[in-house]
Design a protein that fits this description.
86% of the residues lie in helices and 0% in strands. With 276 residues, the protein is mostly helical. One of its GO terms (cellular component) is nucleoplasm.
């Protein structure tokens, strides 16, 4: 059964999957920021801008009308004050009576001036309050958006701060296999070395016999092809026990050769006679 090596890079894959999950969380938080920027900031600002434009125009018109009325009242009191002063200078005998009317007109003038100043101060206070409310509303919307940014940064800090060191440690061990895989390879190599030693020790006495058996089996299979060559090599290598003796002819070679010459001459004569 073949060993399985699927989990030799399990730590790297786990770290990469954790990084992917962190990226997903951060991306989701960024999408929340984008939604909050539109829903919590842009839409309320646009809505309030339209309302505030109408409110400001109405308040301005109201202020101008009231300011005009109070200014006119103050202007009348000031005009009466001037008129009684002129009369007082012309009628020197009735100076005491003119002075009482003048004091009354002066009191009316002071009251109208106080009313006008109070109205202006109250109107300015209302305008500053409304302006502060507008700026406060914009600040509130930005604070709501800043909370989403804070959540984004907290997510990044909590996710990266806890796992970044672990990921770096895994990245530093990329040149080495995990201990479990190393132990598995060491065990396999140890088994292979033991098997090889057993084969060497057990098979060494019978090594020559096994070689001879294998050679003989190969010769049996190729006997028809290599038998003649093997026989010739054996003849050259191994000397024969009985030396070969030269055969002697029992016939007289000289006489046999003379008879052969005579027979050939007779055959030639017969061929010539046939041609004639």
């Amino acid at each position: 059964m073949r060993p399985r090596y699927e989990h030799y890079n399990e730590t790297e894959r786990s770290a990469l999957m954790q990084i992917v999950e962190v990226y997903k969380e951060i991306q989701a938080q960024e999408m929340n920021i984008l939604k909050a920027f539109y829903v919590d900031l842009l839409v309320p600002l646009e809505t309030n801008l339209e309302k505030d434009t109408k409110v400001v125009q109405s308040e301005q018109k109201k202020f101008l009308q009231q300011h005009k009325a109070r200014s006119e009242t103050y202007s009348k009191a000031a005009a009466n004050m001037k008129k009684y002063r002129k009369k007082g200078t012309k009628n020197g005998a009735k100076a005491g009576l003119a002075t009482d009317k003048e004091l009354k007109n002066m009191q009316i003038l002071e009251e109208e001036k106080t009313k006008l100043d109070r109205f202006c101060e109250q109107s300015l206070k209302n305008a500053m309050t409304q302006e502060r409310r507008r700026y406060g509303f914009v600040l509130e919307r930005h604070c709501s958006l800043a909370k989403h940014y804070l959540a984004l940064h907290n997510t990044g800090v909590s996710s990266y701060g806890k796992r970044l060191d672990e990921w770096q440690d895994v990245a530093r061990t990329r040149e080495y296999l995990p201990d479990a895989v190393e132990n598995m390879f060491a065990m396999k190599l140890r088994q292979l070395s033991i098997w090889q030693d057993d084969e060497n020790f057990a098979g060494e006495p019978h090594l020559l016999d096994d070689d001879r058996i294998s050679i003989s089996s190969q010769l049996r299979k190729t006997k028809s092809m290599d038998a003649s060559c093997l026989d010739l090599r054996s003849i050259n290598d191994v000397g024969s026990v009985k030396p070969l003796s030269r055969a002697k002819s029992e016939f007289n070679l000289n006489s046999s050769t003379n008879s052969l010459v005579q027979d050939r001459s007779q055959e030639k004569d017969i061929r010539k006679s046939r041609k004639l």
